[in-house]
Amino acid sequence: MAGILYVCPTPIGNLQDITYRVVETLKAVDLIAAEDTRHSMKLMTHFDIHTPLTSYHEHNKVAKAEVLVEKLLDGLNIAVITDAGMPGISDPGEELVRQAVNSGITVTALPGPCACVTALVMSGMSTRRFVFEAFLPADKKERAGVLDMLKYETRTIVMYEAPHHLKRTLKELKEYLGDRVITLAREISKKHEENIYTTIDEAISMYENEEPRGEYVITIAGCPKDVVFEEAGKWFEELSVAEHVDHYMAKGHEKKEAMKLAAKDRGVSKRDIYNELIK
C-alpha cells in the first residue's frame, strides 16, 4: 500500500506560527523532504523532531521527486517542507506534488502560514478577487509580457520580491501600471515586521536614499474598471483606417459592414471611411 505525501507549511517568521498538527505530522512520518536541511534542522531541534531529513530543492526537484515518489509507492509516508511558508507556493514542492498526484499517491496539505495571503489580508485592499504573481520572471522579454498583461488587471495583485530587486521592480510597475496604491509588507511575522501603506510613486521616492531590507510582499490595487473600459474603447487608435476595416473583415464581415463598424468606432460617417480608403 502506498504512503501519503503531507504538504506541511512552516513558520514564515515567528516559530510559534507552526501548528500542533504540523509538528505531530513531522514527528510521525518516515521522512521529511526539506528545501534546506541545515535551515530546517533549527526547526527540528526547537520542536524536538527526530525524523530523518533529505534535501529537496530547486536544483534537484525533478530527479529527486522521482526518487521520493518511488519511496511513497513503497509505503513510506513523507512530509515536504519549505524554508518558510506553504510548500508549492513559488516553491519546488509543486513538482513533487504533481508527480505524486500523477502516480496516484494520496496528497494532503495541512493549513498554515503563507506570506502572500497574510500580506493580502493586511493590505486593506479587496480580497474577494486577487491574482498571485509570485516573483516576476528573470527573463527580460517574459517579464515585460507579464507586466503588460497586468496593466488592465482589475483584481488585487500580490507578488514577492527580494530586497536587492525592489527598486527596479517598483520602477517597472510605474512604467507599466502607472501610479497605484500599494502595500509593502516586509519581514512578515518577524521581529522587524513592517507594513508600508503607500503608492508606487511614493515608494520609489522613499527608496531613492534608502536600501530595502528583508523579503517583501507587494500588494497592488487593481486597475479601476472605468479605466479598463475607457482604454478598451480606444483599441483601434494605432490602426490606419484600412487596417481598422481589415480587422472587421478578418472577423467575417463583408466590406460594407466592416466600413460601417469602423465608422461607428471612430465617430465618423461611412463616407469618411470610404474617402480614406480610396486615397
Q: Distance N terminus to C terminus?
A: 77 Å
The CATH class of the largest domain is Alpha Beta
Percent of residues in helices: 40-55%
Q: Mind telling me which CATH architecture of the largest domain this is?
A: 3-Layer(aba) Sandwich
Run of helices and strands = EHEHEHEHEHEHEHEEHEHHHH
Tell me how many strands there are.
10
Strand order of the largest sheet: 3-2-4-1-5
Question: At the fourth CATH level, what is the homologous superfamily of the largest domain?
Answer: Tetrapyrrole methylase, N-terminal domain
What general form does the structure show? elongated
Provide the low-confidence segments as ranges.
none
**Mean pLDDT across every amino acid position:** 92
Structural class: alpha/beta
Q: Can you describe what's shown?
A:
It is a single chain. The chain is an alpha/beta fold. The chain has three domains: 4-113, Cobalt-precorrin-4 Transmethylase, domain 1 (3-Layer(aba) Sandwich); 116-224, Tetrapyrrole methylase, C-terminal domain (Methyltransferase, Cobalt-precorrin-4 Transmethylase, Domain 2); 233-278, no CATH class. The protein is built from twelve helices and ten strands. Strands 3-2-4-1-5 form a five-stranded parallel sheet, sandwiched between helices. The protein has a five-stranded mixed sheet with strand order 6-7-10-8-9. A hairpin with a 7-residue loop joins strand 8 (181-186) and strand 9 (194-199). Helix 10 crosses helix 11 (255-266). The longest helix is centred in the N-terminal third of the chain and has 13 residues, at 61-73.
